[in-house]
Amino acid sequence: MGLVGVFLGFRASEALRKAGWSFVTTQEWNPDGGGFGIAAVMVGTILIALVAVAVALALAVGTALYISEYAPRRIQRTLITVIDVMAAVPSVVYGLWGAFLLQWRVVSLARWINDWFGWIPIFKVDGVARHAVQPTATAYTSSTFIAGIVVGLMITPIASSIMREAFSQAPVGEREGALALGATRWGMIRAVVLPFGRGAMIGGTMLGLGRALGETIAVVMIISPIFRIQLHILQNGTSSIASLIALRYSEETPFGVSALMAAGLALFGLTLLVNFIAALIVSRSRSGALSEL
Amino acid sequence: MSVLPFPAPGQPGRHEAPSDAVPLPRTTLPVRTGTRAAPPSRRRLTGARLPDVLAVSGAAAAALATAAVLWTEIGPFTGIFGYVVVSWLLFVLLYAVLVALDENSTTMRDRVSAVVVHSLALLVLSALCLIVIYTFFRGAKALIHLNFYTQDLRSAGPLAPLSQGGLLHALVGTLIELSISVSIAVPLGLLAAVFMHEIPGPFSRFVRTIVQAMTALPDILAGLFIYATLILIFGLNLCGLAAGCALAVTIMPIICRAADVVLRLVPGGLTEASYALGSGQWRTVWYVTLPTARSGLTTAVILGAARAIGETSPVLLTAGATNYLNFNPAHGPMMSLPLLAYSLVTNPEPNYKIRAFGAAAVLMILVLLLFVVLRAVGGRGPGRLTNRQQRRRMAASRRDAERLSSRAAMHAAGGALATIGIIAPGHDGSDGGDKQ
Questions:
Q1: pLDDT by residue (tens digit) across A128-157?
Q2: Interface test mutation site (partner A, options B70, B124, B208, max chain A beta carbons within 10 A)
Q3: Within a 10 A sphere around the Cβ of B160, how many other Cβ atoms?
Q4: How many angstroms separate the CA of residue A276 from the nearest CA in chain B?
Q5: Do B66 and B87 touch, CB atoms closer than 8 A?
Q6: Which residue in B122, B191, B217 has the most chain A C-beta atoms within 10 A of its own C-beta, making it the best mutation to test that interface?
Q7: Closest by Cβ to B221, choosing from A4, A82, A109
Q8: Which pLDDT band, with edges at 50, 70 and 90, does A221 fall under?
Q9: Yes or no, beta carbons of B220 and A92 under 8 Å apart
Q10: Chain A neighbors of B309, CB-CB under 8 A
């Protein structure tokens, strides 16, 4: 299984040797003439993943708490199945939904954020007047923000099911102790459930982050690729490593494929790192300590 | 095994009282004086109280109305999305104020956080419903035509009406690729899981780490890996076999990891009992561990299959794309449902878009079917049996009991014969242990 990494490294070495350090700093992607590098796509990948995690963290914690603490016992199992189904919905379906339904609904929100918070650099949109009477909607479509929301919805069920398992394992004695001391339900959750599940919350989020970094099809369907570092998350045009591979693999020369391999290797390294940290945090935490029979 | 806490026969038991006991202290009942007051009415601990309901509905009404005024009369606001967001924020604010009028701040925090948690969960659920319903809604025009399921797209050009052409080729391709990937990934994944479970040590820890890392492998990299090995090096052309291999690389770690978790839940007592009865390690695995975990293992396989059905990116790189029906996985490009949806939707023709949504809807139906199967077979803890399995077990153990008792009767007869010196005791080896 480690073959994949070794193999990618082997195939990528040709391209890496040619590009050298400029591979990390170059923004454009043109292997057969001129330079190529992952600076732009890497930044795009990380930004999309960060937006996705910001969306997914809130949704996943809310859903996990609802299922483990608030939901009536009768519907708990059904809800768990529903979340599993959501995890199994194919990414192309999420992509269709994001590109055709969500895109045009989010534009108004994006414009609102730009109008009022455009002075924060990350929310700035170039070429659009703030508070314009007749705003140009296309400046806000196909952005990092929209791709991030869709990917965030995709990773919510994964993160949520890890958190839910940890929350529902919070020791009953401590819960009842908190309630007996007069805590409200929220007080009990804050004092017992959340500290107990903290490791799982961080770990689940990071596992989701790993998924978000590698998400391909939904991102391809939404973004319009550009190859320069795009820090304005609301603005049209962004890019990610996975979508770069999906869009370019068929039209490349052998050297170009090698360059794509190098980009894939960078992505592989990044997700591997994130996941190892996540696994470490999950296994270090108290969560699941009682699962051994 | 621990020593059983029964007193040995012949020694006095612990519960026998000593004979020269002093008179035991007796319980004294308090004497009730006067008439009892009427019992206080029992407090209702569950269910919603009227003020709560009023607070929630009042806050909701006020928030919706205020946002409506903002939208239509005052501000330059547009868009239903913003309306929902703003009215939700107003709702939380107003609800907090309403609760704060009656209760202390601790209760208010409790109520507000309950509202936030409920609405987040509702948001996730409604997003899921919206995704499913929207896909079916947009694809409905294609789904109602019978030819959508019985034809491929070879005759349907971009302008062809929906009554021509369909997704049969993608459906067949998906099923073929699924069966290839499952038949590669399930044996390997389960074997690896059994290996990790049965032979603990540094190497199996290493394998477990690798598997955990592999679950994080971006699916496009699985496709790229197969593309670079099977296609570029071994000269296979774009075909269903390559796509099946790519899907197998994607789902193997998922199956392996889920199976590993399930195997760890098999009660240690069962395997130890099997060892104690003298069976070897692999016999124990085959007859005790795997059957006990069967339900969970099925779940693992189905989860993997659900993932394999829906993956687009590995297939995109390895299967090629075609409009023709192709039954041969080893030769010629092969279509699958997610790939069909993806490639159709990039086409600007409206009929192709409708077909794309139709393909996505069929895909959703397949995934949901898998989950119905999952609900039917899975979800039981290790070692829990269905009613039918339980009846079968009971019948088997009744047969065993009959067999044993008949054997015991035979032995008794044999023993009796032995005592009168006709045959030697222990003739069939099974009662050799209890010779005098």
A1: 666 665 556 666 777 788 888 889 998 898
A2: B124
A3: 15
A4: 7
A5: yes
A6: B217
A7: A4
A8: confident
A9: no
A10: 90
Region B9-21 average pLDDT: 50
Helices H, strands E: what count in chain A? 14, 0
Please name the member of B135, B227, B268 whose beta carbon is closest to the beta carbon of A93.
Answer: B135
Q: Which residue has the tokens 């309901």?
A: B53
Give the pLDDT of residue A66. Answer: 92
First-to-last C-alpha distance (Å) of chain A: 30
Residue in A3, A6, A78, A89 to test binding to B, most B beta-carbons within 10 Å:
A89
Residues 6+ apart with CB under 8 A from A190: none
The confidence band for A18, taking pLDDT boundaries of 50, 70 and 90, is low
A193-216 pLDDT, tens digit each: 888 888 888 888 888 888 888 888
Give the angle A44-A49-A51 at the CA atoms, nearest 5°. Answer: 95
Q: Tell me what pLDDT residue B281 has.
A: 87
A-chain CB neighbours of B293 within 8 Å are: none
Q: Looking only at Cα atoms, what is the longest distance across chain A?
A: 72
Handedness of CA B188, B184, B362, B138 (dihedral sign): positive
Q: State how far the alpha carbon of A195 is from the alpha carbons of A170, A200, B63, B356, in Å.
A: 9, 10, 34, 45
